[in-house]
Design brief:
Blueprint: E1 6-10, E2 14-20, E3 23-28, E4 33-34, E5 37-38, H1 46-61, E6 69-71, H2 74-77, E7 94-98, E8 101-102, E9 105-112, H3 115-124, E10 141-147, E11 150-151, H4 163-170, H5 172-194, E12 198-210, E13 213-217, E14 226-230, H6 246-253, H7 268-286
Antiparallel strand pairs: 1-2, 2-3, 3-7, 4-5, 6-7, 8-12, 9-10, 9-11, 9-12, 12-13, 12-14
């Protein structure tokens, strides 16, 4: 970025810059990570999709839960970051956020049996000591959505933990609060996605404290943080086609890669369908064309 900001952190997907004591710029790159390894090839439009979707959901939830997002509008970012308006390559992928002290948990909510949870259930019939009905198959719905936190690993893979362990990490009261917020957001989002024929199988929220208040941070209900299925294609026990990273993970798994760096090269046609899938997710969920989002 040619505007002069101190780079504070780069995650697998986002780059964080310091704006002032209270604010950060979070820039979503087009990097794609799978099995916690970042691919060499960027996925065109991915950063704008993640940012546009996060903005969409935070506006949807605004009356219910505060968020760290201040604005994605380049004109509103400009007074905080002079010169930003001219930096069109950052438009649409950048969020001005209030700096938060992150809760040391990944707050996962699951409505359907899938992913690592399905694998643990299939192997042990239970997950993290939670009593689950027997005979559930892949994609089956839980009676009520489950709050299944994991650790926020500094490096390597996040680990599923039970609620007692989660409480010992963040405290009982914060855990109860986080759980209530996340279950309520999941339920609202799932109902809203159902109206456009989509099933929210599971999603991960990250919360943090701003001025002593627990708020929604980071990305919200994106294809990177969520499993989203077309309702009419879901069959009990079968892997549904999905709008999230799963098709890419499936392609990777078929390459016989051992999931440690370096990742295999991703051919151009896979990059292209992956990009198209991200864009389709944005357009189906928001009902808007991605070209109408900032930076388009
Ligand atoms: N409002 C906020 N204030 C401070 N940090 C935030 C805020 N919102 C998100 N973050 C942090 O910014 C980072 C975003 O980077 P990114 O999503 O690329 O990370 P990641 O790959 O998911 O995880 P890791 O940080 O482990 O690499 C995360 O560490 C997230 O917890
Ligand atoms: Mg992240």
């Amino acid at each position: 970025m040619t505007v002069d900001l101190r780079h504070v952190y780069s995650g697998k997907v986002r780059d964080l810059y310091e704006v002032d004591d209270a604010h950060l710029l979070m820039v979503a790159s087009d990097r794609l990570s799978a099995f916690d390894v970042v691919m060499n090839e960027p996925i065109p439009e991915k950063g704008r999709v993640l940012t546009g979707l996060t903005n969409y959901w935070i506006r949807e939830f605004a009356s219910e839960v505060p968020a760290s997002l201040v604005s994605c509008d380049p004109a509103e970012i400009e007074p905080f970051v002079p010169g930003f308006l001219a930096e069109t390559q950052w438009h649409g992928r950048t969020m001005l956020v209030r700096r938060a002290t992150m809760l040391a948990l990944e707050c996962i909510v699951r409505g359907r049996l899938a992913g690592s949870y399905y694998e643990e259930y299939a192997a042990h019939g239970a997950v993290q000591g939670m009593a689950l009905p027997s005979g559930m198959k892949l994609t089956d719905a839980f009676e009520t959505p489950l709050f299944t936190p994991s650790t926020k690993a500094e490096s390597g893979h996040d680990i599923n933990i039970d609620l007692t362990t989660a409480a010992s990490l963040v405290g009982d009261e914060p855990l109860q609060q986080a759980m209530a917020i996340c279950l309520s957001l999941y339920t609202r989002a799932a109902a809203s996605l159902a109206e456009v024929g989509l099933i929210l199988a599971d999603t991960k929220f990250e919360l943090g404290y701003v001025d002593g208040e627990l708020v929604v941070c980071d990305e919200v209900l994106t294809p990177d943080s969520s499993r989203i299925w077309p309702a009419d294609r879901v069959r009990s026990g079968e892997t549904p086609p999905s709008f999230d990273k799963q098709p890419f993970r499936d392609w990777l798994s078929a390459q016989g890669w051992d999931r440690t760096p370096p990742p295999p090269d991703v051919p151009a046609d896979i990059v292209e369908v992956t990009s198209e899938r991200y864009v389709a997710c944005y357009e189906r969920v928001t009902g808007h064309s991605l070209s109408d989002w900032y930076g388009g």
